[in-house]
From TrEMBL, chains A, B, C, D, E, F, G:
Source organism per UniProt: Lachnospira pectinoschiza
GO (cellular component) term, any one: cytoplasm
UniProt cross-references to InterPro entries, sorted A to Z: Chaperonin_GroES (IPR020818), Chaperonin_GroES_sf (IPR037124), Chaprnonin_Cpn10_CS (IPR018369), GroES-like_sf (IPR011032)
Descriptive protein name: Co-chaperonin GroES
Cellular localisation: Cytoplasm
HAMAP family according to UniProt: CH10 (MF_00580)
Keywords: Chaperone, Cytoplasm
Function: Together with the chaperonin GroEL, plays an essential role in assisting protein folding. The GroEL-GroES system forms a nano-cage that allows encapsulation of the non-native substrate proteins and provides a physical environment optimized to promote and accelerate protein folding. GroES binds to the apical surface of the GroEL ring, thereby capping the opening of the GroEL channel.
Molecular functions per Gene Ontology: ATP binding; metal ion binding; protein folding chaperone; protein-folding chaperone binding; unfolded protein binding
Family: Belongs to the GroES chaperonin family.
UniProt main location, coarse: cytoplasm
Amino acid sequence: MKLVPLGDRVVLKAIMAEETTKSGIVLPGQAKEKPQQAEVVAVGPGGLVDGKEVTMQVKVGDKVIYAKYSGTEVKLDDEEYTIVKQSDILAVIE
Amino acid sequence: MKLVPLGDRVVLKAIMAEETTKSGIVLPGQAKEKPQQAEVVAVGPGGLVDGKEVTMQVKVGDKVIYAKYSGTEVKLDDEEYTIVKQSDILAVIE
Amino acid sequence: MKLVPLGDRVVLKAIMAEETTKSGIVLPGQAKEKPQQAEVVAVGPGGLVDGKEVTMQVKVGDKVIYAKYSGTEVKLDDEEYTIVKQSDILAVIE
Amino acid sequence: MKLVPLGDRVVLKAIMAEETTKSGIVLPGQAKEKPQQAEVVAVGPGGLVDGKEVTMQVKVGDKVIYAKYSGTEVKLDDEEYTIVKQSDILAVIE
Amino acid sequence: MKLVPLGDRVVLKAIMAEETTKSGIVLPGQAKEKPQQAEVVAVGPGGLVDGKEVTMQVKVGDKVIYAKYSGTEVKLDDEEYTIVKQSDILAVIE
Amino acid sequence: MKLVPLGDRVVLKAIMAEETTKSGIVLPGQAKEKPQQAEVVAVGPGGLVDGKEVTMQVKVGDKVIYAKYSGTEVKLDDEEYTIVKQSDILAVIE
Amino acid sequence: MKLVPLGDRVVLKAIMAEETTKSGIVLPGQAKEKPQQAEVVAVGPGGLVDGKEVTMQVKVGDKVIYAKYSGTEVKLDDEEYTIVKQSDILAVIE
């Protein structure tokens, strides 16, 4: 099952911080989310949204920073996603 | 009796989660709604809505995720529906 | 006396539920209103409303579902009506 | 002295209900206002209002129903008027 | 010193009610302001305001009724004025 | 160091009232600001602002009245300025 | 890692005030931020933003004053940035 966003929507997945324990062992994907950082997992087609032409500027795999409190959290097959409008994405991290 | 939505409206019906009891018996359509997941049961004609051209992008039978708290709940012949604007639909589940 | 709505306005009249008493007698038009269901009794001409072209899509006699809390209740010759904008009508019941 | 409304404004005067006393005497124009019913006493020229073309659709003498709480009450020569935008007029009573 | 309003702004000066004392003496310009009535003392050039073409329809000397609570009160050389947008002027008194 | 405003912004500096002490000595620029009065010290280029063409109508040196509570106060080299949009300027004082 | 802003967004970095201790030693970049002053570290491409053409007018290295409470604070590699829309930038400091 996968999410196919409509219009100018983008599906994001939170980026987990790798954490190193005191003993030096790296625990990938452990507990802590990097706030507001996420990876793009699906991109809507853009086009005419609310009467305005929108061109999509992010692509799957981009790491992005998005506006706090924007978007809607959804759960699918026990995975959590955030669906935002592209205009809620502030910047791409390169 | 059926609902024929106007403009960019879409009629949704909540998707019920199948639940398996401890004894292993599947209880289809039992109690719990999957939050924000719904099936499209009717789609408006789109066209000029609030002065803006809207093309409908979902179709009857699509499983969709929609924005929490959006739409209006209506009851017809003891069935419950949610009528939303297409722009409140975030993504199609494929 | 009759109401001739302006612009994109539609005059609605609540649909009363027929109720059957315990003794089996049907009491047509008794007390209880069907929530949000109404019959269209007059339709405005549409046209340029707030700078936007509106085409009327409902007609007198249509049974419709409209948004809760929308519209204005008016009383004329002891009859009660609700005047809504067409965009507050969610769906036609067929 | 008379009021000449600007733009899409309309000057309304409340319609008073004729009341019959117990002794059968009709007291025209007595106390009680008919809620939201008014007679049009002056109509603005319409034209470009807030950047949008408005055509006036009511005329002096029309009896109208207008939205509760809309408009501004003004007093001129001890007469009370309500000045509304035409879009606050819901329907003409014929 | 005089006020030259910008855009669609209009400078108003409150109209004072003449009051007659019990002894019959007229006290011009005494205490009481006529609510919402004012005289136009300066008119902006109109033109493109917030992206919309505005044509000025009032002129210096017009007596007008304006919307309660609209506009900004300013004081210049101990005189008090109210500066409103033309769209806050409801009607001219003729 | 100087402030170069963007778009339709205007940099204002409060006009101080000259105050005469009881002994008759004029204290220029003393304590009290004239409310809402200011001198224009820099003017943005105008042009397309929020999708709307804006032509600047004030110039450096103009004395203006601006809307209470509008604008942002900034401090540069211990001088205080208020940066407003031109549309917050109500009138020029001539 | 660097931030590449989308649309009309601009990445800002707070300007720190150099502080001189009592003993006369300059402590560059010490504690105190200059309120609302920042340096531009990255500029979005502009173009069609929310249906409106935006031309970017600031460039990397500009010192700017921006509206209090606007923008979103983000943290990347332990550096703190503020991402604002260009329209939240009031003026360039030259």
